[in-house]
Design goal:
By secondary structure, the protein is α+β, with helices and mostly antiparallel strands. Helix content is 54%, strand content 10%.
Length: 702
C-alpha cells in the first residue's frame, strides 16, 4: 500500500529538522499512543514504523539519499500489508483524516474486506469511525458543512454494515444531527444555478421545521437538544435571506396547512412582497384572504389590511380599516396628522413595505418604494378597473331592462298629476318635488329623477331622493365621528345614532333594491329639454340650482378675443352631491392650470381642488422639464363626461378628452407633437376631504 505522506510528516517534523529534533519528536510520538481501542498488534506496528523513520532521518547518508528521492518526485510511502493499518493510523495522526478515511473505506470494501472477527477488521472499523468524525470537523472548520455531513453519513453507514461500535455510531449520529442547520445554510447559500443543491436545502429545511412542530416548535423532537427555540429563531433569521420570495411562499403555505399560525403570517408578508415587487395585484388578494383568517394573539391586522386596500385603490375602505385599528397611538397619529388623511396612510404603507414586507428575500432588492409608479402601472390600472367593474355590476330584473329610453315627456305626465305641479317651473328648467319635500332639496330630487331608466311611479322617485339624503347623513355622521365634535361625551349615544342611521339606510335600500341607476352622460342632461333653457348661453347649459355657485361669466372665466375659455378660476365644490357640470368645471380648472404651469406661464395653485400628491407630481414633472431645457404646450377640450360611481366620499367619472401636446425647446423649436384621435379617454377620481371635493388621481387610456 502507498500512503500519501513522507517520513517527515509521518514522524511530525519539518524537512529542515535536525537529528536532535527528530529524536525528540520520535520519543513524543511513542509516549502518546492512541488510546481509542486499537489492538496491541497494530500499535506495535505503529511504534516500529516510527522507529524506522527516526533511524532513516537521523543517519546522514540515508537522509541524503531520501531527500534526493523527494526532489525527484517521490512523495508516498510504500508499506507492506502487515503494516498498512499502522500506516493509516499515522496518516490520521499527521492531520490528514480525509485521506485516511477514504483509504480505510476502500480497505473495508470487497475484495479487500478483512476477515470477519479479525484484528484487522476491528482496527479498520474503529479507524473509519475516528477518521470520518475528524474529517467532518475539518470540513466544518472550513465552512463546508455539506461535505462534513457526507463524511459523517458514510462513517455511520460503514459502522452499521460492520455491526460494531454502537456507542461511537451514536456519537456520529448526534454530530450529524447538530450539523443539520449548518448543512441547510451551506446548500441554500450557494448560487441559485445549483438547482439540485437549492432543492435539497429547501427539503431539509421544511423537514426540520415540521419535525420541530412548525415555526413555533410545538413538538419535542430529536433536534430539541441541539436547537432550542431561541437558537432556531436566530438560525431562521440568518437563513431567510437566502430564500427567494417564491421559496418562502411555498414553504409558509405548507407549514400553515400543518397548523402553524406564524407561518400563515409570514405567507401573508411574502404574498404581499411578490404582489408589490412583481406588480401582481392578484397576490394582494391572496395575502388579504390569509390575514383575515389568522388569529394571532396581539396582532392588529386592520392597518395591514388597510395597506392592501390602499394598494388596490380602495381609499375609502383603507381609511375605514385604519380607523378600526386597536392601536390608539396610530389612530391619534392619523387624527392629528397635519396633511390629508390619505397622505398619512400612504406614508404608513410605504414605511411598512420598506421595513417589514420587502426585506429578507434573495430575489427582491427594491432600493426605493414608489407608490406613484405602482398606481401608474398599466397592468395595475387594468386590474383595478376590472375589480371596480365587478364590484359595481348590478343584475337587472326582467321588465326593468325593457324600460330604457323613456322620453322626459312620459314621466312628466305622472308628475303633472301632483297638486304642487306648476307649468311655469318647466320654463325655468326645474321640476316639481313630491309633496312635503322642501324646495332647498330641489337639486337632490332633480339629480335622482332623471336616469336612463325613468320610472313612472313618482313615489319611487321620492324613495330615491330619500336614499340620497341618507347617504349624505351617513357621510355627516362619519365626519362627526372623525372630528370628535358630536359624540365625545357618551359612546352609547354614538352607538344609538349609528344604529338609527343604519336602520333608516337599510329601510331605504329595501324599498328600492329592484331599481337600477345607470351613469348619466352630460350630453343627455343637456339634450333634456326639461332641464335646460335652449335660449341660454352655452356656458350655462345644464346648470341646476347648486351649479349657480359657479357663475360662468367673465368675472369667473378668463376669455380670449374669440370667446374661447383659456383659464378657469379655482372654485371649491362643497355640496355633498355635485353635478356633472360642477365636476366638469373642476376638471377643466385642473387641465387649464396644469397646461399653463407646464408651459411656464404661471405657478400652480390648486390646493383647494387638487390633492397635494398630484400637485407634487406635477411640480416634479416641471422641474425635470426645466433641467432638460424644454416646456410643454398642451391643448385640451372635454368632449364628453360620464359618471361611473359615486359615494359620499368618492366619485369616479370617465372623460373623452381632445388632447394635443407639443414639446418644445426653450427657444421655441418643436421637438415632438402628440395628438390623440379622436380623443383620449381618462378616468378621474375625486375624494371628499375637509368639506370639499378634490381631484385625487387620474388614469389615462381607460
Amino acid at each position: 500500500m502507498e500512503l500519501p505522506l513522507d517520513h517527515f510528516r509521518l514522524i511530525g517534523v519539518s524537512p529542515s529538522a535536525t537529528s536532535e529534533e527528530i529524536l525528540r519528536a520520535f520519543q513524543l510520538r511513542l509516549d502518546k499512543t492512541p488510546d481509542e481501542g486499537f489492538t496491541y498488534e497494530v500499535l506495535t506496528q505503529r511504534s516500529e514504523l516510527l522507529r524506522l523513520t527516526a533511524d532513516l532521518l537521523t543517519d546522514p547518508e540515508s537522509r541524503r539519499d531520501y531527500e534526493n528521492l523527494l526532489l525527484n518526485g517521490a512523495s508516498a510511502l510504500d508499506l507492506s500489508s502487515n503494516r498498512e493499518v499502522a500506516g493509516l493510523i499515522l496518516l490520521w495522526e499527521s492531520g490528514s483524516p480525509k485521506e485516511a478515511f477514504k483509504t480505510v473505506r476502500k480497505a473495508l470494501q470487497p475484495p479487500q474486506t478483512p476477515a470477519l472477527g479479525s484484528n484487522r477488521e476491528a482496527d479498520l472499523t474503529l479507524l473509519a469511525a475516528l477518521t470520518s468524525r475528524d474529517a467532518a470537523i475539518q470540513e466544518q472548520d472550513q465552512r463546508s458543512y455539506s461535505n462534513a455531513a457526507d463524511f459523517l453519513q458514510e462513517g455511520i453507514q460503514l459502522l452499521q454494515r460492520m455491526g460494531k461500535l454502537g456507542e461511537l455510531r451514536k456519537t456520529l449520529e448526534e454530530d450529524l444531527m447538530s450539523l443539520l442547520p449548518y448543512r441547510i445554510l451551506d446548500l441554500l447559500s450557494r448560487d441559485l444555478n445549483e438547482d439540485e443543491s437549492h432543492k435539497k436545502g429547501l427539503s431539509m429545511l421544511e423537514n426540520l421545521i415540521i419535525k420541530r412542530g412548525g415555526l413555533e416548535g410545538k413538538n419535542k423532537s430529536e433536534y430539541s437538544d441541539y436547537l432550542n427555540q431561541q437558537e432556531f429563531e436566530s438560525f431562521f433569521q440568518q437563513i431567510k435571506p437566502f430564500l427567494t420570495v417564491q421559496d418562502q411562499i411555498d414553504l409558509f403555505l405548507e407549514l400553515q396547512k400543518r397548523g402553524s399560525s406564524e407561518a400563515g403570517f409570514l405567507a401573508f408578508l411574502s404574498l404581499t412582497a411578490i404582489g408589490f415587487a412583481r406588480r401582481k395585484p392578484s397576490k394582494l388578494f391572496e395575502a388579504r384572504k390569509i390575514l383575515t383568517k389568522l388569529n394571532l394573539s396581539g396582532l392588529d391586522s386592520m392597518p395591514l389590511i388597510g395597506c392592501l386596500d390602499l394598494l388596490l385603490a380602495d381609499v375609502e375602505q383603507s381609511s375605514a380599516r385604519f380607523l378600526s385599528s386597536s392601536d390608539e397611538k396610530l389612530r391619534d397619529w392619523l387624527s392629528t396628522y397635519p396633511g390629508e388623511k390619505l397622505e398619512a396612510i400612504c406614508i404608513f404603507c410605504k414605511n411598512w413595505l420598506e421595513n417589514d414586507v420587502l426585506v429578507g428575500y434573495r430575489d427582491i432588492n427594491l432600493k426605493e418604494i414608489d407608490l406613484d409608479s405602482w398606481f401608474e402601472d398599466r397592468e395595475i390600472q387594468e386590474f383595478i378597473e376590472q375589480i371596480e367593474k365587478k364590484s359595481n355590476k348590478t343584475v337587472l330584473k326582467p321588465g326593468i331592462q325593457n324600460q330604457q329610453n323613456f322620453k322626459a315627456q312620459e314621466s312628466l305626465k305622472d308628475i303633472s298629476k301632483d297638486s304642487n305641479f306648476n307649468p311655469d317651473d318647466i320654463e325655468e328648467g326645474r321640476l316639481p318635488l313630491p309633496g312635503g319635500v322642501k324646495e332647498d332639496d330641489q337639486k337632490v330630487f332633480e339629480e335622482n329623477i332623471y336616469t336612463d331608466e325613468i320610472i313612472k311611479n313618482k313615489s319611487i322617485e321620492f324613495y330615491k331622493y330619500l336614499i340620497e339624503k341618507i347617504a349624505e347623513l351617513k357621510y355627516l355622521f362619519g365626519e362627526a365621528l372623525k372630528n370628535n365634535k358630536l359624540f365625545n361625551k357618551s359612546p352609547y349615544l354614538t352607538y344609538l345614532y349609528a344604529f338609527l342611521i343604519l336602520f333608516i339606510f337599510g329601510l331605504g335600500v329595501g324599498i328600492v333594491r329592484n331599481n337600477f341607476k345607470k351613469p348619466l352622460k352630460e350630453k343627455e342632461i343637456i339634450d333634456n329639454s326639461l332641464l335646460i333653457n335652449e335660449n341660454k348661453n352655452v356656458l350655462n347649459e345644464g346648470l341646476n340650482q347648486d351649479d349657480k355657485k359657479i357663475d360662468l361669466d367673465k368675472s369667473k372665466i378668463i376669455l380670449s378675443e374669440n370667446q374661447e375659455i383659456i383659464s378657469f378660476l379655482v372654485e371649491e365644490i362643497t355640496t355633498a352631491s355635485p353635478s356633472l357640470v360642477q365636476i366638469k368645471y373642476l376638471i377643466n380648472t385642473w387641465l387649464s392650470n396644469k397646461s399653463d404651469f407646464l408651459s411656464g406661464k404661471s405657478e400652480i395653485n390648486l390646493s383647494k381642488i387638487v390633492q397635494n400628491d398630484l400637485i407634487n407630481r406635477l411640480t416634479k414633472e416641471r422641474q425635470l422639464d426645466i433641467k432638460k431645457g424644454i416646456y410643454r404646450s398642451i391643448n385640451t377640450n372635454i368632449e364628453n363626461i360620464v359618471l361611473l360611481t359615486q359615494t359620499a366620499s368618492r366619485i369616479a367619472v370617465s372623460v373623452d378628452l381632445k388632447y394635443t401636446e407639443k414639446i418644445l425647446k426653450t427657444d421655441g423649436e418643436l421637438i415632438n407633437e402628440t395628438t390623440f384621435t379622436p380623443f383620449l379617454k381618462v378616468k378621474y377620481i375625486l375624494g371628499f376631504s375637509n368639506n370639499s371635493w378634490k381631484l385625487v388621481d387620474y388614469i389615462s387610456g381607460v
